[in-house]
Predict the 3D structure of the following.
Amino acid sequence: MKEPKEIFEYLIKEFGEDGIHFETGDTGEPWIEVPAGNVKEIMKFLRDDFQLKFNVLMCLSGVHYASEAALGVTYHINSTVNSAKLALKVKVPEEDPVIPSVESIWKTANWHEREAYDMVGIHFKNHPDLRRILTAEDWEGHPLRKDYVQQEFYQGIPTGE
Amino acid sequence: MNDIMNITTKEAGKREMTINMGPQHPSTHGVLRLELVLDGEIITDVRPNIGYLHRCFEKYAEEVGDYSKVIPYTDRMDYVSAMNQEHGYVTAMERMLEIEVPERVEYIRVIVAEMQRIASHLLGIGAFGLDLGAFTPFLYLFTEREKILNIFEKVSGARLLYNYMTVGGLMRDVPEDFKTDVAEFVKTFRPKIKELNDLLSYNKIFIQRTADVGVLPEKVAFNYAASGPVLRGSGVKWDLRKNDPYSIYDRFDFEIPVGSGEMGTLGDSWDRYIVRVRELEQSLRIIEQALDGMPDEGDVTEAAPKRIRPKAGEMYVRTETPRGELGYYIISDNKGGPYRVKARAPSFVHLSLLRAISRGHLIADMIAIVGSIDIVLGEVDR
C-alpha cells in the first residue's frame, strides 16, 4: 500500500470517518488530517500494521496557521519496507495547543517535538523532556508564531540592531 | 559543606559526576556542549545542549518574502557541503513550480554536488582522524579538498558558500576548462583513496579506537530516523539517490557501500567511517559518467522563472547530502515568499541519537563517536 489515498481509505476503515480528512493543495503533495485526540493510536497503527510498516518518522514540523488561529504539527513518515511516504497533519486551537507526544513510537520525535515547542509553542503531552532546544531556556515567546514580537532585552542585553 | 567533608572514600567512589564537554572543545566540530554524567571514566548519561549557532533560518525564510533569497541562507546551514544544501532547496522549489530543468543544468548540478560530497567527506574523515590523534591524513586530505574548492571558485566565485544554483537553473555557466579540470581531479584523486586506506583506515591504532565503539543497531537507527552514512554503517542499503531518486541520479550506475562489521560489531564507528571512504569512489564514478553525458551546449538560465510564485500547497522534498537525508518542508500560500520552511537537517537527527549509542563507553570513546557521526553544528542549530 503506497498511495496516500489508499492509505486514507484504509485508515477510515480502522478509525472511522470522524475528524480524518484527505486534503490536497493546488500544488505539491496531499496530506491526511487526523484529530489530535487519537494521533498516538493512528501513528502506532501506521508503524505496526503489516501492510503499512511506516518505520521511520522523517520529519515533524510545527506550524502556526495564523488565519485559522490554530497551531499544527505535520508528520512526514516513511516506510523503508514499501518505499512509501506519507504526510499527516494535526491542528489544535491556539488557546489550548496540546498534542499527545509520539516519542514512545519513534524516539526521533523527542528533539523534533522540543523544537516545535520552542518555535511555535505546542505542548506535547507525555513528552519525557519538554524543554526549549534552539533558543535559551529563559527566552520569551515562540519565534515562529506569526504574531511573534522579539523581546527588547535579554538579560539586560539589547536584542535589536 | 559538612556533607562533602564527611563522605568516606567508598561513598565518593559511588558518586556520579557531571562535567561539560564544550561549548568550546576541539573535537565537538563547532559550538556544542555535551553534559556528560560520569561514573569514574565511564559515561552513564549524556545530554547534548545545542542552539549556540542558531541563526533563525526558518524565521528568515518566512520573513524575507522571496523564495530565491532563501538560497544563500541554505548554504550557511551545512557550510561544508553548501552545494548539496542548495541542490535540495532548488529541487524542492522546482517540484512545487513544476519546472523542467535543462539537461545541461542537471548534469552540472550532479557534478558539483558529487564533488562537494567528496570535499565534505574528506573534511569529515580528516577531522575524525585528527580527533583521534592522526594528524597526517588530515593534511593530505585537505590538499585534495583544496583542489575541489579551487574548481568551485572558478565556477561560482566563492570557495565555501556558493549561492550557485538558482530555481530552474544556475547562476552562470561553468568556465570553458571545467570538464578538463574535473577530469584531471578525478584522475589524480583516485590513487589517493588507496593512500588514505594505508594511512588511516587499516591503521591498527585507528581500528582499536573505533571498532566496537558506539554500536548503532539497525532497529535503533530506524527508530531515531538515522540516514546517510550513519544508517548505511549499520548495514542498511538506503540511499535517496537510489531509493527516492531526484535530479538525474537514476541514470548513473553506482553502488551503495554499507557497513558489515569487518573490524568489530556491525554499526560501530569504524563501519560508519569506512562507508564514507567507500563513497568517495562511488562519487568519482558518478562524476565520470556525468562528464561523459553532459551536453556541451545549452543555456543554463533559460528555464529560470522571472517570478517565483508557486500555487498554494505544500511539499516535503528530501535529498541525500553527505550527512544524510536533508528534507525541506515548504508551505506556499501563493505569495512571493514561503509561508513556512522547515529544514530537516540530518546532523540534528543524528545528534539526538548520541545518547543511545554512547552510554557505557569511556570519555575518550565519546570523541570517536562524535567524530564518526560527522555533525556540522551550523546545520544542527540552523
About this structure: Chain A has a mean pLDDT of 88. The CA atoms of residues 30 and 81 of chain A lie 21 Å apart. DSSP finds three helices and ten strands in chain A.
